[in-house]
């Protein structure tokens, strides 16, 4: 039987492919919700309005199957048990928190890889539906999370962002770990002028995307939104009072860049404030069973989105990437190579020099392929990373 994690992050793909081509919705972007719950109809209706997509409400598959060809996605309510024969597009389970267990079970049956608890996940769902409406507009946002302390998430965030920038992506690297050492220092960019997180916390209303991009520090072709260098009397932590401002920042970031890489951090505050904006997560875990156990607990608290596991070597006897993935409960999408001399490189602020190593280029190419397979639309058709990895 498929586990809860398997239902959420399992084999179901957001865009099923037929005859080698991608599934595409009709020109008019509408979604369908299958549910008999008036309360759920209202919650989905508010989300659809925010995302500017049309909404078709039906209470059964029989009522809605004749309209499928015009739908961009189907949302299935937790109050119904259905099959979707012939449907090839995205499926999202939706329902209230008290129905969460039932939602996981139904997601397993449908092969859905997205579960949205409403109203808590309303913002994430609105972002997801907006990307269906405008598939070529806006950045792909990926969150990098350490499955345990010292896993290497910050290192991976920098290497991945820099590698993507070298392949021509307009990249924003976001430091979501306020208690970390600072991504700008690791990039030797701590003294560069520009806006930092605390400068943006008092923002109210929409943020101009072009102005945000031009006001951020830039190093090695990467725009950087970090903590260090802010005024001494600025708040030093993410809190829920800043959630609205963070949402405006992330919306502007989607409009300004092709790829946003967030070093999310492991604190509940950063996961709540930034994780909801991620289209997918990469969890970095050392090849140790204790680390895998910690990662399994963290994965349960991630917002609903596809999750891939990156296992960091070296490997001990009897332990490989698939063993670690089985212990965590999510699919392995790659192995983070052992980087010799990494401690000295970090201390010297010369981390970007590691991009010259073939293993690092190969790792970055694999991550871009994974994002593309998850439905990422900000990628150039030529896929230059495949030729140079």
Q: What are the key terms here?
A:
eight-stranded mixed β-sheet, 389 residues, alpha/beta, five-stranded parallel β-sheet, 37% helix, disordered N terminus
Reconstruct the topology from this structure.
Elements: H1 4-9, E1 17-18, E2 21-22, E3 30-34, H2 38-51, E4 54-58, H3 61-64, E5 71-77, E6 91-95, H4 100-110, E7 114-117, H5 122-133, E8 140-146, H6 153-166, E9 171-175, H7 183-186, H8 197-200, H9 209-215, E10 218-219, E11 222-225, H10 243-256, E12 259-263, H11 268-274, E13 280-286, H12 289-299, E14 307-312, H13 321-328, E15 332-336, H14 342-348, H15 358-373, H16 384-388
Parallel strand pairs: 3-4, 3-5, 5-6, 6-7, 8-12, 8-13, 9-11, 9-12, 13-14, 14-15
Antiparallel strand pairs: 1-2, 10-11
């Amino acid at each position: 039987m498929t586990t809860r994690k398997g239902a959420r992050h399992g084999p179901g793909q957001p865009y099923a492919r037929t005859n080698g081509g991608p599934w595409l919705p009709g020109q008019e972007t509408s979604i369908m919700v299958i549910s008999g719950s008036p309360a759920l109809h209202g919650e989905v209706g508010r989300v659809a309005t925010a995302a500017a997509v049309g909404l078709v409400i039906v209470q059964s598959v029989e009522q809605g199957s004749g309209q499928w060809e015009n739908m961009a996605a189907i949302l299935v309510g937790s109050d119904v048990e259905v099959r979707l024969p012939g449907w090839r597009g995205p499926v999202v389970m939706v329902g209230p928190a008290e129905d969460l267990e039932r939602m996981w079970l139904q997601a397993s049956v449908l092969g859905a890889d997205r579960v949205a608890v409403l109203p808590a996940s309303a913002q994430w769902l609105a972002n997801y539906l907006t990307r269906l409406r405008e598939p070529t507009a806006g950045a792909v946002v990926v969150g990098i999370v350490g499955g345990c302390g010292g896993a290497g998430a910050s290192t991976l965030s920098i290497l991945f962002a820099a590698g993507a920038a070298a392949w021509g992506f307009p990249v924003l690297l976001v430091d979501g770990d306020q208690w970390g050492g600072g991504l700008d220092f690791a990039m030797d960019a701590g003294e560069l002028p520009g806006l930092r997180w605390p400068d943006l916390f008092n923002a109210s209303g929409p943020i101009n995307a072009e102005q945000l991009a031009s006001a951020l520090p830039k190093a090695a072709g990467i725009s950087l939104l970090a903590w260090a260098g802010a005024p001494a009397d600025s708040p030093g932590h993410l809190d829920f009072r800043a959630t609205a401002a963070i949402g405006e920042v992330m919306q502007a970031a989607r409009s300004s860049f092709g790829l946003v890489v967030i070093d999310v951090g492991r604190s509940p505050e950063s996961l709540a404030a930034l994780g909801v904006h991620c289209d997918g997560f990469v969890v970095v875990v050392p090849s140790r069973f204790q680390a895998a156990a910690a990662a399994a607990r963290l994965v349960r608290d991630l917002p609903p989105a596809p999750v891939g596991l990156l296992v960091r070597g070296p490997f001990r006897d009897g332990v490989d990437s698939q063993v670690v993935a089985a212990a965590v409960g999510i699919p392995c999408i790659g192995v983070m190579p052992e980087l010799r001399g990494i401690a000295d490189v970090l201390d010297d602020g010369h981390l970007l020099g590691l991009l010259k190593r073939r293993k690092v280029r190969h790792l970055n190419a694999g991550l871009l392929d994974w994002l593309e397979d998850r439905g990422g639309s900000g990628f150039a058709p030529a896929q230059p990373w495949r030729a140079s990895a």
